[in-house]
Each structure stands twice: as C-alpha cells, then as structure tokens.
Specification:
The protein has about 300 residues and is an alpha/beta fold. It contains ten helices and twelve strands. A hairpin with a 2-residue loop joins strand 9 and strand 10.
Length: about 300
C-alpha cells in the first residue's frame, strides 16, 4: 500500500476506485465498504484509493470539545488498511481552510482532477463538504458531468453488521472488550512505552510493566482487570492488566499496568502492544496487601483460562 500525506504527493490514477471518510478503527461496517471497493477495482481493473483525514475533523470543527477519543491512531489506521489490501491511502491534513471547501469543489478539484476518480463508493449516510452539504443525491447529480460512477452501500448492508465507531467506543468505556473485538473483527489494542513505576507489584509476587500510551487521543478501556495478550518485539505473551487508580495503594494515581506471564526481562523504554481479550473484574479496594495478593492469584488463574494457557 502506498501512503500519501498530501495531495501534492499523489499522481492522478487512470482508473481510481475511491472511497473516503475517517475510518476510525476500520471496523466491520467499514469493511463492508472496503470489500465493495476491492471488488469493483478487480472487476474494472482499477486501483483502490482511500481518502482519510488527520487530525480527525471533529478536532478542527469543534476545538472546544475535548471528549473525542479514537479507536486508532494514524499509524494504527495505516496498518489496519494495509491489512485490508488497499492500494493507495491518501491522508489529507484537515484544516479550517479545507473544511470550507464546498461539496462541488471537493468533487471537481480533489476527487476528479487530482485523484482521477472513475468510481466512488460511499456509505448510505455519508456527508461531505462545507457544512456537510454534500450527499449521495448531490454526488448523483454531478457524477455524469465529471465522468465517474457512483455506488452507495445500502442502509441494509451496513446495518446488517450493527456497528459504528460510537458503539465501539461505548463498549470499550464500559469494559466490554469482547463486544468491541467482535465489532472490530479483531481484539482492541493499545501501544505504549514501558516506564518506571513504584515497583510495588514485585514485592507481592506480581511484577508489572507500567505503560504510557503514545497518544492522548487513544481510547483506553474502562477501569478494571483484563486478560490480555502482550507483544514484546516479535514475541507474544499472556498477561493480566489493570487500568485504574489502584485504590488499595494510596497515592499511586491512575495507571495502566500489566503482569506478563512467564517473563522476567527488563524492558524499560521499550514499546509494547496490548490486545484486550476479556474483562476479569472491576477494580476493588482491598483491606490489605495479603487480600490483594490472594485476589491476584485468582485473577491469574482466570486470565490463563481465558487465554487458553496452562498455569
């Protein structure tokens, strides 16, 4: 997959089969669109082009709304789309100036003159252009003038998978990582750097790696204890992870900590990836460290069971 960070880097394609949108998380409904895109490209001997935006349009249009959290960073989105077999990914800088483009300017100047769109695939409720004035009807009106064909993914096809980025975000905030994984067609993951903590876990037999997530916008699942897969370099390990304020240990503050099974290496300042498999329990305040240690033993056994690992 070729990746372009601006239109200036892109050379017009003879037979471009195009879709566009934020594609946060590249979830099941997005994949319905991508499947149609790839089928058309195969049938018409064209090349697939996906146009997306950075930063997320909401950050520019509603700068005072600080509640936005994303399912995928730009790098994660690139990797997910590459897995889907897209030929060309165009990441357009979304600015105030860009947001003022009329739908006609977007169609004429970007889709047609710059990209070379011969077929455009969009979701049934897709809107674009200044004040979201562009719609399927608008595209249908201008398609003959500018020489491209149009395919709208029906409401039935998209609703059949019953998923949206909003629903996935809600599930993750509630700790429903299994549900989110079904919507995403793969486990939800975060990437972060291992930083030094207070090293209290090792004193009770459960040393943890403290994780600092790379992006402030990346959505972190709700507080609780989870069974997870941990990727350190090319190696995969099981683990149990805690997100929260660690109420049993005063003054610790909110953190993300993972106990990696059968692992004893020092990995400070290394980047690791976490895949969420199952939520084991909510975060609880224990009366003593001995009680906490006993619960961690039970968590360990349940996590191993969830991951299909032997103690």
């Amino acid at each position: 997959m070729k990746v372009y960070r601006s239109l200036d880097e892109f050379t017009k394609i003879k037979r471009a089969i195009v879709t566009q949108g934020t594609f946060d998380g590249v979830h099941a409904a997005h994949r319905v669109i991508l499947q149609q895109l790839k089928k058309l490209a195969h049938d018409l001997q064209g090349e697939t082009v996906l146009i997306t935006y950075d930063p997320h349009p909401r950050m520019v249009l509603f700068p005072d709304d600080h509640g936005l959290q994303l399912l995928s960073t730009v790098d994660e989105k690139i990797a997910l789309l590459e897995e889907q077999g897209i030929d060309h990914l165009v990441i357009l800088p979304f600015t105030k100036e860009f947001s003022r483009l009329s739908s006609l300017e977007f169609i004429r100047d970007i889709l047609v003159n710059k990209i070379g769109t011969k077929y455009l695939v969009i979701g049934y409720n897709h809107r674009f252009g200044k004040n979201r004035e562009g719609s399927f009807a608008h595209l249908k009106e201008f398609a003959p003038t500018y020489g491209f064909e149009l395919k709208e993914i029906s409401e039935h096809d998209v609703d059949e998978v019953s998923v949206s980025s909003t629903r996935i975000r809600e599930a993750l905030r509630n700790g429903e990582v299994e549900q989110a994984s079904r919507f995403l067609c793969k486990p939800y993951s975060i990437i972060g750097v291992v930083v030094e903590g207070r090293k209290l876990g090792r004193t009770i037999g459960y040393p943890t790696a403290n994780i600092e997530v790379n992006s402030d916008l990346k959505l972190i699942p709700g507080d609780g204890v989870y069974a997870v897969w941990v990727y350190v370099g090319t190696q995969k390990y099981g683990g149990m992870l805690n997100i929260g304020n660690n109420p049993t240990i005063p003054g610790k503050g909110r953190s993300i900590e993972v106990n990696i099974f059968k692992f004893s290496e020092t990995i400070y300042n290394q980047s690791i990836r976490i895949e969420f498999v199952n939520k084991l329990r909510n975060e609880v305040k224990f009366n003593s460290l001995d009680t906490l240690k006993s619960q961690l033993h039970n968590d360990n056994l349940r996590a191993l069971e969830c991951l299909g690992m032997t103690p």
